[in-house]
Write a structure and sequence with these properties.
Blueprint: E1 6-10, H1 14-25, E2 29-34, E3 52-55, E4 73-76, H2 85-102, E5 110-116, E6 127-128, H3 139-151, E7 157-163, E8 165-167, H4 173-179, E9 192-193, E10 195-197, H5 198-210, E11 217-220, E12 226-227, H6 228-238, E13 257-258, H7 261-265, H8 275-292
Parallel strand pairs: 1-2, 1-4, 2-3, 4-5, 5-7, 6-13, 7-11, 8-10
Antiparallel strand pairs: 9-12
Helix pairs in contact: 1-5, 2-3, 6-8
């Protein structure tokens, strides 16, 4: 993008803030919409002071907060309030309708919708890509599949990004659970984990804003889907805690390996192509921070 664009990030949480940092560095005008925007006492990344914050609830029919003019791009990446069908429908289907109904879309050129690999079903460890038929196992995947279908019917250029499991400095829940001995792994069958570093996920969003003719959908995953037991055991060893005991696979997501070939063919390059490389940097940062405390 060579010209300044006015970009609205709807649901501007961890991923949105990372994305905003990159867009602000490129000189764009960035608006961040949240139910509860950060106040002055809240420590935020450096980019937060340059974001124009909008307080609004996407789930409310008829958004009454005045929205900015000349928005050329929407990045739709909210988080549902709960993991229920009602909450997913409220934010991903009705929420988007509410936003578009309240916004002057005269200048709108592209809408990037952040979806999930949960839209896929059970594939017994085989590779899947953007053309693999969707048969989601959980309610989250089913609602997101419906939202994707509605999105592509809109009269704007739309791009769906199906993200795998996010990790990074702002998302360390897996590490905390392994440390606390709260994880189980399947050891009687190979069951894959798919991951993407938060930094790479944000960069992929920005990359898809620059493509002159993007594909309708991209899978956003790193290069190394790993067996869950292998990944979790490696993390436990790196943290010097016991390996997780045997248990059942995660429910409702299916066993699959996500191919990022289409995204890479579009010219995108990962900073953290290997999950273990990304987690190594994350753990090293943790140790450094602990030493400084």
């Amino acid at each position: 993008m060579n010209t300044t664009k006015h970009i609205l990030i709807a649901g501007c949480g961890d991923l949105g803030l990372r994305t905003a940092q990159l867009l602000l560095q490129q000189g764009h005008v960035v608006y961040g919409l949240r139910r509860n925007p950060p106040g002055p006492p809240t420590p935020e990344p450096k980019a937060a002071s340059s974001i124009t914050w909008i307080q609004a609830d996407l789930c409310q029919t008829g958004i009454h907060t005045p929205l900015p003019e000349k928005i050329s791009t929407i990045i739709y990446c909210p988080t549902p309030a709960q993991r229920t069908e009602a909450a997913y429908r409220a934010i991903f289907i009705q929420g988007l309708n509410n936003l578009l109904g309240a916004l002057n879309t005269t200048w709108l050129e592209r809408l990037v919708f952040i979806s999930s690999s949960a839209v896929y079903g059970e594939h017994h460890g085989n590779w899947v890509n953007e053309n693999t038929p969707l048969l989601p196992l959980g309610v989250n995947g089913r609602v997101l599949q419906e939202a994707e279908q509605q999105l592509h019917a809109l009269p704007y250029e739309t791009v769906v990004l199906r993200l795998s499991g996010l990790y990074g400095p702002e998302k360390q829940q897996l590490l905390e659970r392994i440390r606390a001995g709260q994880t189980r792994v399947p050891r009687h069958e190979t069951y894959y984990a798919n991951r993407i570093h938060l930094e790479d996920a944000a960069a992929a969003i920005v990359h898809c804003l620059t493509l002159p003719q993007p594909a309708p959908c991209y899978l956003v995953n790193d290069n190394t889907p790993l067996p869950i037991d292998e990944l979790y055991d490696w993390l436990a060893s790196a943290m010097q805690v016991p390996c997780p005991p045997e248990g059942t696979p995660p429910a409702g997501i299916g066993n699959k390996r996500l191919s990022n070939a289409l995204l890479l063919e579009s010219g995108f390059r990962l900073r953290w192509p290997d999950t273990r490389q990304g987690y190594t940097a994350l753990l090293n940062e943790q140790r450094l921070n602990n030493q400084q405390v």
